[in-house]
Amino acid sequence: MRVAVGAAGAVTAAGFCWTLTHGLAQPRAALAFGLLIVLGEVAGDHRASAPARFPAPLATAGALGYALLCIPVDTVGGAVLEIAAVSFTATVVGTVPHVARGRGPTAEHLVRRVLGTAFAAACCRPLCAGDADDGLTAGAGPLYVPALLGVLALTALCDAVLAACLARARTGWPYGPLLRDELRALPGVGSAMCATGVVIALAAQVAGPWALPVLSLPLLLTQVSFRRYAAVRRTYRQTIASLARATEMAGFHAPGHAHRVAALSRAVGRVRGLSERELDVLEQAALMHDLGKLSLSGPAPGDGADDPVPSTGGPESLADRRRIALLGGAVVRQTGVAAEVAVVVERQAEPYRDQPVAARIVRVAAAYDALVTGNAKGEGAVAAGPLAALEQLRLAGRAEYDPAVVDALREVLASGAHLN
Question: Are 265 and 283 in contact (CB under 8 A)?
Fold first, then answer.
């Protein structure tokens, strides 16, 4: 993280020094693309709860398009520094409204913008040929456009690697799954940004910078539509979170149980290498894993799968646990969530070898939270410390819990990744 921030800071400082000393080689292009970046940032979504990996697609496309311009300066490095300085300045200006609302961008966003733009500009310099009358340089040859697409593809790959490294430094999560999720996100919004960047760069070279608003409109409309989708998704998640508190309000668990289990489950899923979509399914299932207990007439001691050493008779018998799990799955299916979520809930009472990975994770996380909060054996139970709880899960693991998931939970607790 420090290396990336230091590199971005050095490039930005050098860019400002170069620009202040030599001035802008293409003021009109710098103004047009700068305004486009500002507009894209203003229309972006920098909230911490935003699900997008690209908070400002239009701004990113504008920065990439500006990087593909062949700015005629004395040295190749000067063009790269000028582009980096303009992109950074426009990004900061565009995020001012978000900062005023307490939703400012993270340092990672600025680092990725500066380094990604500088990298694309540096790779594009050998492709430049000939000067246009308006100062915008046009490429030559039939391979020019494919070469630009290749530059952006390479830039996108490098940005994915950088984003995974930054996330690894910030969260402590395994690097492999983080990189896989970044690469999976590229064919969607990532490809749209790259295509828009190439189109606006070519248009600026032929028709001038005034063609940018028209060519950027489709991506802007897509970005607005995605923000509406994100708002609906946030409301949907809030509804699930509210439903998850039903068992706590009924007295089956200590307050916050469902949310703690969801946080632990997601962190363990990261360690186990689940994809982003699988993590979403896991989190939703963890929030609603106990809904079947609402079918009981009231809280019962050791009433289900959260008991680390279930007995064979009484209210926590295997038959009752399965009935509770099936009823919970039926309730989940009525909420309209993905069918995979209901399957995870329904399989909570099965032997762990017959469960999907998500169900194994939820089962371990729920049992651990019940132990550390003193809720594992019902009202009046004594809470166990984290080490004692892990030891109980390990001892019961041969019959009830996947040892690999218990080991992953130990790793999560040691690193504190569930707190990120």
Answer: yes
Q: Are 80 and 121 in contact (CB under 8 A)?
A: yes
Low-confidence ranges of the chain (pLDDT < 50): 49-51, 130-138, 300-305, 309-315, 377-382
Q: What angle do CA 140, 145, 150 make, to 5 degrees?
A: 125
Give the integer Cα–Cα distance in Å for 205 and 138: 6
- In this prediction, residue 282 carries a pLDDT of 92
Give pTM, 2 decimals. Answer: 0.74
Looking at residue 131, its pLDDT comes to 44
Within 13 Å of residue 134, how many CA atoms lie on the same side as its CB?
14
pLDDT computed for residue 217 by the predictor: 83
What's the CA gap between 389 and 260, in Å, rounded?
15
CB 362 within 8 A of CB 348: yes
Q: Quick check: 182 and 160 in contact, CB under 8 A?
A: yes
Distance of CA 150 to the CA centre of its chain: 26
Contacts of 214 (CB under 8 A, 6+ apart): none
Q: How far is Cα 379 from Cα 254, in angstroms, rounded to an integer?
A: 10
Residues 6+ apart with CB under 8 A from 87: 37, 63, 66, 67, 113, 114, 117
Structure tokens at 188: 């969607």
